[in-house]
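INTERNAL AUDIT FORM
Audit reference: QA-55
Scope: verify that the stored structure record matches its stored sequence.
Auditor: D.O.
Record contents follow.
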Amino acid sequence: MKVRVAIIQEAPIWMDLQASLRKLARLVKAAAKKGARLVVVGETWLPGYPAWLDYCRSAALWDHAPTKTVFARLRQNSVAVPGNETKFLARLPAALKVTLVIGVNEKVESGAGNGTLFNSLLTFGATGKLVNQHRKLIPTYPERLVWGQGDGAGLESSVTAFGRVGGLWGGKNSSRKPQWK
């Protein structure tokens, strides 16, 4: 069975969750219109990767006001699971009959881990059901300033109409250049 896969490589509207969700809807619709049955969106696409970790030398200081400000903005624009954003995300694949795999900054708003952010991979089946939620197990050294460690509960693949789908996030190498094998 041949399956058309779309990989969205456009940038989100950085740190603007609502604008990024609108952009995502346009991109997923365009992919589905071209016959994609699986649409994949990169690591922390919603609402963007915390790039300041790689460029702000003072990011790890305890009381660094600019870092606190940008972290608060990241948290404000992160995705609650479950929440309004995941309801929106679930409607996209359901309406378009695609499987959607997307990377998000996930915020925990109650219960165990309240206040924690995770680098999460969400998989929505073609019915719109959230079929898997995987939290990055071990964030890289600077990423630990932002994200908590995942627990491995989502370390599984998901059954789809065209086969099993799974994914993981990896660390960056020190050269910042892709390593192809």
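Auditor finding: record pair retrieved intact. DSSP finds four helices and eight strands in the chain.
Action required: none
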